[in-house]
Write a structure and sequence with these properties.
Chain lengths: ~300, ~230, ~290
Amino acid sequence: MKRWFFAGLAVSLVVLAVYPLQGTGYGIRTMLQLFMWIALAQSWNLISGLTGYVSFGHVAFFGMGAYTTAILVTKLGWPWLAACLAGGVMAMVLALVIGWPCLRLKGPYFAIAMLGLNEVLRVIVSYYEGLTGGGSGLSMPTLHASVPIYYAMGLVALLVTALTYVIITSRFGLRLMTIREDEVAAEAMGIDTFRYKLYAFLLSAAAPGIVGGLAARDQGYIEPMSVFPLITTITMIVMVLFGGKGTIWGPVLGAVLLFTFQEIVWARFIYLHQLFFGAIIVAVVLLMPRGILGVLQQKYNLPRTI
Amino acid sequence: MVDRVVKRFGGVTAVNKVSLSLEAGCIYGLIGPNGSGKTTLFNCITGVDQADEGQIRFKGQRIDGLKPHQIFHQGIGRTFQIIRVFPELTALENLLVVTTDDYAAARARAEHLLGFVKLERLAGEYAGNLSYGQQKLVEFVRVLMTDPELVLLDEPAAGVNRTLLNELLGAVRTLRDRGKTVLLVEHDMKVVMGLCETVFVLDHGEKLAEGPPGVIQTDERVIEAYFGR
Amino acid sequence: MFVITPAMVGQVVISGLLAGALYAMVALGLGLIFGVMRVLNVAHGTLLMLGAYTTFWLFHWFGLNPYLSLLVSMPALFLVGVVLQSLLVRRVVDAPELSSLLLMFGVGIALVNVTQLAFTSDLRSVEYLTGSFVLGPFAFSKSRVIAFAFAMAITAGAFWFLQKTRLGKALRAVSQSREVAQVCGINVQQIHMLAFGLASALAAAGGTLVAVMVAIQPEMGQVYTFKSFLVIVLGGAGNYPGALVGGLLLGLVEQLSSLFLTTQVNEAVAYILLVLVLLVRPTGLLKGRSS
């Protein structure tokens, strides 16, 4: 069984790697976006799926990465790849700044704190207009290179999934899960829950930061509305919940399924997005709280490393 | 070994200037009617709650004010009244998360401990799927993973059938023989009287009496506390 | 820095209290849901928004006095709340808190979207009261003062209900301990529905009162959700009278900070305050019960 899986995986990777040679511009950009969502969903999974601390403001890291990259490229002339990595670093810094006070709170209170995060960041961006271009946004010289970004995104998605695998199969991951299971007991058993939560939070901010930068580069233009929208967080959440939070492939599955769905629905019903996602969240929470993979896991007694 | 001294601390209404002194290699019991402050006392010792007054010392060092995980690393372990195993982790993993030893050593120890309570074959089961009694045993040995010197057991006998209970008690006695100190909160009098060398009685947050089981059993104030009100 | 006169301070303080009562009323609703069901209603602001729209449409179509529309918006949203609770929320009351959070989150965004579809995102407003009451050196916008009056009245009514009526006491009993309440013969599910309905009504009242003062659009609720949380945290989770104190406190802080900081930073103030309070006293400034 496992061998088929890995064979399939290898084949898919090869296909994806050579796709740009054959694919259309539209196709490449679509796949690139899919990779982005996979990376985002996996990252959200790292903190919220494993530790149970729901991050409602995760798009903040995406936006942070976008703005860092844009500023470095336009104002300091950095090469875009380095700028994106810097975006990831800055996102982690932001995670540290936010996480340090907020992760000391208990789960629900943390969620509340994260809710307000979006607003605050948008305000800050507007405030430092000189640097960020305020409400009118920043433009970057266009890059006629979707292909490198395709590979970059794909690589990030791959790395984050690999990271998730490493974490879930390690004791570090187990300890993160104990926080979700029973934080009081975890503390009593000598686990410094604060530190573990912080590590998970930092790790979960890196990819969105990088990916935010890449996305910004791809768009060529960013403004507060486009990089801090709630819908991004919502999408991340739905993808992970749907696919199976706390699993390795759940976010990937959720991302693929929902992204495909989104591409089809988007074309016709842009305005129903939030409604659909909201409905899906409600349905998943009530009927399928562990997501598709979770249900399969239980039914067929699959190992946790799925 | 050195005195483990738990001194006076005045809690909010829960615990009022209670002093306990524990020595190595003994089994102590903490009893009292419901609401007398036993679990609160436990919580203060393990850092889950903060004492408002007084001090708690362990091996000569003050431990009040430390966070629970720090206290754990000082050598104090505890179990809970309501079972707190990690349900989505297997029995083995429940134990593994506790130590920071390298994996091989931790695994060996975990398997040994599971064997100690005859649960080896369930090592790969999700803890949430185990029976109540089995979960209790897992929680019990989980505490022992890092070889703590002081073990606090919160109602270990609750809801456990006779056979399992005897195993548990036997394990506790073995701990004592190895020089560990055990303090347990319990409602089951037979367990307390049969197991403990010294018994503390709490009532309404105050220490009512202290002494060997035989003496406590006949102490009028204790009887009144339980039945008289 | 410009000179701050006592009159300015007085103005600001009273403005703060005026606004605070409104926050308190809405937050009380949130507190009820949390106290009774241990559910954090992240869609609370959405309910407020619905109340505001109700007022708007009644005004727009029938010219109904916005304050009279309280008589419509409150019962209507009460029903909505009851329905939400019995259909959806009751299933996650015993689940881990994460579930109820996500559930309400989903409900909230779905409702916002529906509203966008139905009413578009165009900004609406209820042009009803303009001008201010002038009292010596102070001037307060009329709508604010009246909102304050209603908010105080409704909140007082809510407290009277909680303290003096049998249902209210039953509600408080369930907040304290569900098991004990059950043993005493209280129908807990009914109380849950009641609590959610009441909370929704309170939110709706907030929406109605606010409709006269701010622009109405589908996403207006978010900031109120957040502020309600802040109030609950300030006043102590589960501490109902604390919500009043918390609300007034928030109003005060907001107005005071507007004196010294730009309006843009004001939003951040609420947030920073929240984080600070949560760090220092996670159970709230007053004695509350942690979750």
